TrEMBL record:
<dbReference type="InterPro" id="IPR008266">
    <property type="entry name" value="Tyr_kinase_AS"/>
</dbReference>
<dbReference type="InterPro" id="IPR000719">
    <property type="entry name" value="Prot_kinase_dom"/>
</dbReference>
<dbReference type="InterPro" id="IPR001245">
    <property type="entry name" value="Ser-Thr/Tyr_kinase_cat_dom"/>
</dbReference>
<dbReference type="InterPro" id="IPR059179">
    <property type="entry name" value="MLKL-like_MCAfunc"/>
</dbReference>
<dbReference type="GO" id="GO:0007166">
    <property type="term" value="P:cell surface receptor signaling pathway"/>
</dbReference>
<dbReference type="Pfam" id="PF22215">
    <property type="entry name" value="MLKL_N"/>
</dbReference>
<dbReference type="InterPro" id="IPR054000">
    <property type="entry name" value="MLKL_N"/>
</dbReference>
<dbReference type="InterPro" id="IPR051681">
    <property type="entry name" value="Ser/Thr_Kinases-Pseudokinases"/>
</dbReference>
<feature type="domain" description="Protein kinase">
    <location>
        <begin position="247"/>
        <end position="525"/>
    </location>
</feature>
<dbReference type="InterPro" id="IPR011990">
    <property type="entry name" value="TPR-like_helical_dom_sf"/>
</dbReference>
<dbReference type="InterPro" id="IPR006597">
    <property type="entry name" value="Sel1-like"/>
</dbReference>
<keyword id="KW-0808">Transferase</keyword>
<dbReference type="Pfam" id="PF08238">
    <property type="entry name" value="Sel1"/>
</dbReference>
<protein>
    <submittedName>
        <fullName>Kinase-like domain-containing protein</fullName>
    </submittedName>
</protein>
<dbReference type="GO" id="GO:0004674">
    <property type="term" value="F:protein serine/threonine kinase activity"/>
</dbReference>
<dbReference type="Pfam" id="PF07714">
    <property type="entry name" value="PK_Tyr_Ser-Thr"/>
</dbReference>
<dbReference type="InterPro" id="IPR036537">
    <property type="entry name" value="Adaptor_Cbl_N_dom_sf"/>
</dbReference>
Length: 743
């Protein structure tokens, strides 16, 4: 019915829409036969008997390579990931052995039960990949509400893996008591460290209710939309609103009540001016941003809108919006009284305890960016602004930095080469910029902050490149100081060394660096101290030039590729089980009988998504099947495996389901899981629930708006409609006009 609100009381059409979206998502990951052969390295034809195994072996091979990539980029819970990677490597060895001994395994390839076990093997490997991806990221880790949930998931995965490896007669050198003891130690240690980290990180990442700040999800969604912008305006952006920066009326920008000599910055035009906006000190920075409707302008505007969202972090310079000052376009940003960190250390000597606290806060800001999937690309003291209270604020974002992963131009390399990671120096254009590169740059910033000068000062690019690629680094020799400070310097030095290792896989994680700096700050920094944080320039002996220290030497180890699968099989064929994607395709063609059979087959193999689909058929009564109690059970099994659509359906299966008592707490728990798992229907319904205080839940308008905005960002129509009625913009703080139905 037109105009009808899709609320918790009216959800069937929402769930149908959600299922449709799930269908699209389920089929998008399929591989063509050409891709399969390319992944396997198959040469010539293969026997009919092995054909059912070809796509399965290809899938496992690709999943293994994806696991390796995820592990290489992992920043959190590395030991848990290590334990699972032990299994991945075991699977890799098993696949290689299977390919090498294909003639000896002839009977297995004729066995239908062996084929079914291999299907389960593929599913388990996919689950392991998903779990590694989850626990290696803050957002994924927080999907598991309690530590016990992570432990249970880990142990269940190990059991499933060992069971299917046994069914396939694959050798497992790691299935022993000693390995299980090491696994448990790794699990406990990582969870303990991660919980400590999440408790300390703050910085706009974790909210007071111990959940991930929804702004982080908003930024990721918005960033994805920016990545999709091509040569024309996207027609699928929600409502008529364009993704753009907040607009600030010129009249809202006023002169400060009391002027200062530093109100105007810069040696030549365009100057930066200190102004007042909503009783806040702001800087008005002239920028030549086009005001047309070209694709490039739309992209810049979209990136600025993302920049505005980053102000939830106290350690990122706040961008309030765009305005006009004397007919000139300006960016309105937070005012930093002391200028850049480089300007501060060129004017003063910074006391060592304050350096540690500054480094910690910068690390906190970088963590916020990485949690949003944003890389800065240019971490150095010149891009850190400092407030009067010595609070660092990361700035220096170029528009492209919010979307691209390449540092390409010679000018850019010349500017950043002093802080650039060795892998970027080796390959430059061909090496994608990643978190490991940023960590190296942060390590160089730590050195710059310690010695208050640019690394490799006055060296040209070639000299720096030759020096760094030979495994050498800047001198780490400190001047004489009080014993307490010398102890601090020794510990600070270890943090730097951990960050600038040549091998990215040996290089410390951001979590490790943060926790080490946090220990130093707690040990040496006292905000109540009367000792001045800023001292007259040249009063601290920073580098102890009377003392010498050898450069640091590190090594780089390589790896090896998986061998090709390049020989033919000639075996009798076995019946091939249609894939789950085949079942979904049959459902779309309304061949419910075929779809039901496929969903049941894969449910029997333990496939999570198949359980969801079988539950859906039982719930709706497709293919002559209807059992809502069993459907709810299947939804819960899939939900507990982390499937967002199943979490949503299980929550609503508790509403009005005969034979079961409605449990509001469980309903909200699973609805929240689905919402945090980026299901837009769940986000809308949760937002509607909190906005209006339904089901006896205390009204929380702000939390409701947050979930509604998340839903609207993925084009959820009723969330957009409510935000329009509330006069809220989806992307920024602009008010949008409320439609007048009388016109």
């Amino acid at each position: 019915m037109k105009g009808r609100a899709d609320t918790i009381e009216n959800t069937s059409e929402f769930l149908t829409a959600t299922l449709s979206m799930a269908s699209s998502a389920s089929t998008s990951g399929g591989s063509s036969n050409g891709q399969v052969k390319q992944a396997l390295g198959v040469v010539g034809s293969v026997g009919d008997a092995i054909k059912p195994f070809v796509p399965l072996i290809a899938t496992v091979t690709l999943v293994i390579s994806e696991c390796v990539k995820i592990y290489e980029d992992a920043q959190y819970n590395k030991k848990i990931c290590n334990s699972l990677m032990d299994r991945v490597e075991t699977a890799d060895l098993a696949i290689r052995t299977l390919k090498r001994r294909k003639q000896e395994n002839e009977n297995k390839f004729r066995d239908a039960e062996y084929y079914k076990a291999f299907l389960r093997f593929v599913d388990v490997m996919k689950k392991i990949k998903s779990f590694i991806k989850d626990v290696s990221q803050i957002q994924g880790f927080k999907k598991y509400v309690k530590a016990t949930a992570i432990k249970d998931k880990f142990h269940n995965l190990i059991k499933e893996f060992e069971s299917v490896m046994s069914d396939l007669s694959f050798t497992m050198a790691i299935a022993n008591d000693e390995q299980r003891r090491l696994d448990q130690e790794s699990l406990n240690e990582d969870i303990t460290q991660m919980n400590k980290f999440l408790k300390e990180i703050q910085g706009g990442i974790i909210e007071q209710n111990d959940t991930i700040n929804t702004v982080l999800q908003e930024v990721i969604i918005m960033k994805h939309k920016v990545d999709q912008l091509k040569d024309q305006k996207r027609p699928d952006l929600p409502i008529s609103e364009t993704l753009k920066a907040t607009t600030i009326e010129s009249k809202e920008i006023t002169d400060p009540l009391i002027g200062k000599k530093t109100d105007c910055r810069g040696k030549k035009e365009p100057f930066i001016y200190r102004k007042s906006y909503k009783a806040m000190e702001v800087a008005c920075i002239p920028r030549a941003i086009p005001e047309d409707d070209s694709p490039q302008t739309n992209k810049i505007q979209a990136q600025l809108a993302i920049l505005g969202k980053l102000r939830d972090s106290p350690n990122i310079l706040k961008f309030y919006g765009l305005s006009h000052l004397d007919s000139q376009m300006v960016m309105v940003v937070e005012w930093a009284e002391l200028g850049s960190l480089r300007e501060v250390y060129n004017t003063y000597d910074i006391a060592w305890p304050s350096k540690v606290q500054i480094a910690l806060d910068i690390c906190r800001g970088i963590t916020f960016l990485h949690t949003c999937s944003i890389l800065h690309h240019d971490i150095r003291c010149a891009n850190i602004m400092m407030t009067l209270r010595l609070e660092p604020k990361i700035t220096g974002f170029e528009y492209a930095r919010l979307t691209t992963s390449a540092t390409t131009s010679m000018t850019e390399l010349t500017d950043v080469v002093h802080w650039l990671a060795p892998e970027k120096l080796r390959l430059a254009k061909d090496q994608p910029y990643n978190t490991k590169c940023e960590i190296f740059s942060f390590g160089m910033l730590l050195w710059e902050l310690a010695f208050e000068k640019i690394p490799y000062e006055n060296w040209n690019m070639e000299r720096i490149k030759e020096w760094v690629l030979s495994g050498k680094r800047e001198r780490l020799v400190f001047g004489r100081d009080k014993p307490e400070i010398e102890e601090l310097q020794k510990e600070y030095k270890q943090v730097i060394v951990a960050a600038w290792q040549d091998d990215p896989q040996i290089r410390a994680s951001l979590q490790f660096l943060f926790m080490e700096l946090n220990k130093l700050a707690q040990k040496y920094y006292d905000p109540r101290s009367n000792s001045p944080a800023l001292k007259p320039d040249k009063t601290i002996d920073l580098d102890g030039t009377l003392y010498k220290n050898d450069p640091i030497s590190v090594s780089d180890n390589g790896g090896e590729d998986l061998p090709d699968f390049d020989e033919d099989f000639n075996l009798d064929s076995i019946p091939e089980i249609p894939t789950l994607d085949d079942g979904i395709a049959a459902h779309k063609k309304k061949d419910t009988t075929k779809a039901w059979e496929i969903f049941c087959e894969h449910t029997n193999l333990g496939n999570t998504k198949a359980k969801y689909w079988k539950g859906y058929y039982l719930w709706e009564g497709y293919a002559g099947q209807k059992d809502r109690k069993q459907a709810s059970t299947l939804f819960k099994e899939a939900a507990d495996d982390g499937l967002a659509d199943a979490q949503l359906r299980y929550a609503f299966s508790l509403v009005g389901n005969q034979g079961s008592k409605f449990d509001r707490k469980i309903f909200i728990e699973y609805l929240t899981k689905a919402a945090e798992n980026q299901n837009s229907t769940a986000q809308f319904n949760l937002g509607d629930l909190y906005l209006n205080g339904k089901l006896g839940v205390p009204q929380n308008v702000e939390l409701g708006k947050k979930y509604l905005r998340l839903a609207a960002l993925t084009n959820q129509p009723k969330a957009i409609e409510i935000l329009q009625k509330l006069g809220m913009s989806i992307y920024n703080d602009n008010k949008i006009p409320i439609p007048n139905d009388n016109k």
